[in-house]
TrEMBL record:
Organism, scientific name: Natronospirillum operosum
SUPFAM superfamilies documented for this protein: Folate-binding domain
Source superkingdom: Bacteria
A Pfam cross-reference name: SoxG
Protein name: Sarcosine oxidase subunit gamma
């Protein structure tokens, strides 16, 4: 890897001593999976998260993003994927980049090397959890949880929205006909997990 650009924050500059720490997901204290029959839910392994902000109309910015992450900027209320990387649209000038945690830093460096214009990129790896709901009854759990209309006509496969979830907030995306994903900040992970367990309980009897 080339020298670190001045714009990249290097937090841990002290050589590690002793046994390496094992990364833990926000829900490491739970079973991290549940469900039966037509409904299953689980927490994904730790995910890398880069919060990207920039001007989608800037051709050089868009090209640098595509060259770095392997996929173009996602358009309104959608997400795109390329191998292990996903770009989720959050607002007209904000996207979330999901990637393996051990690749987040390298991807950040690559984008900064490719594009020197006006943009912002923050590495929030470890600050979020991903909970996947699968099965024909998954949509029923979401109907109890969010005010957004999850009918196929309003929430097709490939869509992503930021919405109220219970008494907090989350990002929800539809991966497949019966596959959904909830992305929530680490501090709300336990609340959302317990909410999902409760909302799913009637479909596991």
């Amino acid at each position: 890897m080339s020298e670190v650009p001045d714009s990249v924050a290097v937090i841990d500059q002290i050589p590690q001593q002793g046994e390496p720490l094992t990364p833990r997901t926000p829900l490491h204290h739970t079973a991290r999976a549940g469900g039966a029959g037509q409904l299953h839910y689980r927490e994904h392994d730790l995910t890398g998260l880069l919060v990207l902000r920039g001007n989608a109309a800037d051709k050089a910015f868009a090209e640098a993003v595509k060259a770095t992450f392997g996929c173009p900027l996602a358009k309104t209320l959608s997400f795109v994927m390329a191998q292990e990387v996903s770009l989720l649209w959050l607002s007209p000038d904000e996207w979330w980049v999901l990637c393996p945690p051990d690749q987040a830093y390298a991807l950040e460096v690559q984008l900064r090397e490719r594009y020197s214009g006006h943009f912002a990129l923050a590495n929030n790896t470890g600050g979020m959890t991903r909970i996947q709901l699968s099965g024909p009854q998954a949509v029923q759990v979401l109907k109890k949880s969010i005010p957004y209309d999850v009918h196929d006509a309003h929430f097709p496969v490939g869509k992503v929205v930021a919405t109220v979830f219970g008494k907090t907030q989350a990002v929800v995306r539809r991966l497949g006909q019966n596959d959904w994903e909830i992305l929530a900040r680490r501090s709300f992970a336990d609340y959302i997990w317990r909410w999902v367990e409760d909302a799913a309980s009637e479909y596991q009897r």
